[in-house]
Amino acid sequence: MTVLVQTYFSIRISFTEVAEQIMTVLSDVDWERGDYFYHIPFKPYDAVLYIGSMMNQDVSRYWRYVWWTHKHIYYGVTEGPPILSPFNKGAASNMRLIVPSEYVKWELEQAGLRVDDIIPHGVEIGAIRSVPRNNEWRSIFGDRFVCLYVAHRNIRKGFRELCEAWKMTRASRDDNVLLVLHTSRKPNVLSGEDYVIPEDGNIVVTDNVHKLDRESLYGLYRAADLYIHGALAEGFGIPIIEAIAAGVPVITLDAKPMSELNRVREARVRVAEQKIYVDRGVASYRLNMPDQQHYAELIDAMIYDKQLRDEVKAKQQSYILQYDVYRVYQRFRRWISL
């Protein structure tokens, strides 16, 4: 059986990592890589597994392979109501749709699409835990309490809301605490983001979100004391489970899919309202706007109340093995074998 994996290989993004992990877990399958930009089919395949977003540009890959296989499996995400042309909505209806979260399933069903299965993303828990806590990052931070957030720049990632809440905290005035934002300094103006992160006080921007190998990134998680996932919208939220796997207690907003991964209610920030934001007409985001006062209060509580932090950590650790990459991605065997 030859299965083509169709995703972004010539540029490395999160979809690339997911594809490589699936191929590693199902190593007995005869996989072939098909790059999003450059691959042109010239032979039939037993199946094509597409990995990407539920946007026109990604879903339209179906038409490239429609004559080369009878089995189309799409593992996709959306962070808001999908914007699909009738042409590509028809393509999505002709594929087996697999999604990583209950939230994405709900969003696609609202758009009239059938979802065949939910398979969450997995992470390499053993590899993450093998990195020592006392690593190069920890030597840089010293004895200070480190709050970490890992994300690329986009309006949906909530850097403005996190930094504004941070300014309201006691922690923002504490020299023994750092807010480390593993992201770029430059806003993503194409997404409508114009926020400049204030690098004053105890806010630190690494400015190298795309420049770390996996071991260095795992070391950054391991060096943290608290992970604050500030995203306002997600299709899943891999950094949430990477941080939990690293043994770090996690704060998220109280909205799906973040709340699917952070099952501890007392570690979730109340949502004040939802907004639909359309990004250049090609994607929409369901933005969950936080209650800023509660955001600040929860950050302080998790920093200064060790008992609360330990309780949250223990509860999150109780289910993290469910997201082990070797456990979750085995479930794809069923779909490529049907």
Keywords:
34% helix; globular; 6-stranded parallel β-sheet; Rossmann fold; 15 helices; alpha/beta; 338 residues
Report strand %. Answer: 15-25%
- The computed structural class is alpha/beta
**First and last CA, distance:** 12 Å
At CATH's second level, what is the architecture of the largest domain? 3-Layer(aba) Sandwich
Question: What count of domains describes the coordinates?
Answer: 2
Globally, the shape reads: globular
Number of strands: 14
Give the low-confidence spans.
Answer: none
CATH class category name of the largest domain: Alpha Beta
Instruction: Identify the CATH homologous superfamily of the largest domain.
Output: Glycogen Phosphorylase B
- Going across the biggest sheet, name each strand in turn: 2-1-3-4-5-6
Query: What is the number of helical segments per DSSP (H or I, 4+ residues)?
Result: 15
**What string gives the helices and strands in order?**
EHEEHHEHEHEHHEHEEHEHEHEEEHHHH
Radius of gyration: 20 Å
What summary fits the major beta sheet? Answer: 6 strands, parallel
Mean pLDDT over the residues: 96
Percent in helix:
25-40%
CATH fold-type name of the largest domain: Rossmann fold
Task: Give an overview of the whole structure.
The chain is α/β, with parallel strands linked by helices. It folds into 2 domains: 2-119, Rossmann fold (3-Layer(aba) Sandwich); 125-323, Glycogen Phosphorylase B (Rossmann fold). It contains 15 helices and 14 strands. The protein has helices at 14-25, 56-59, 62-65, 86-93, 102-110, 125-130, 136-141, 159-167, 214-223, 238-245, 258-261, 292-304, 306-317, 325-328, 332-337; strands at 2-7, 30-35, 47-53, 72-77, 96-99, 117-118, 145-150, 177-182, 203-205, 226-228, 250-253, 268-269, 271-279, 283-290. The strands form 3 sheets. A 6-stranded parallel beta sheet has the order 2-1-3-4-5-6. Strands 9-8-7-10-11-12 form a 6-stranded parallel beta sheet, with helices on both faces. The radius of gyration is 20 Å and the shape is globular.
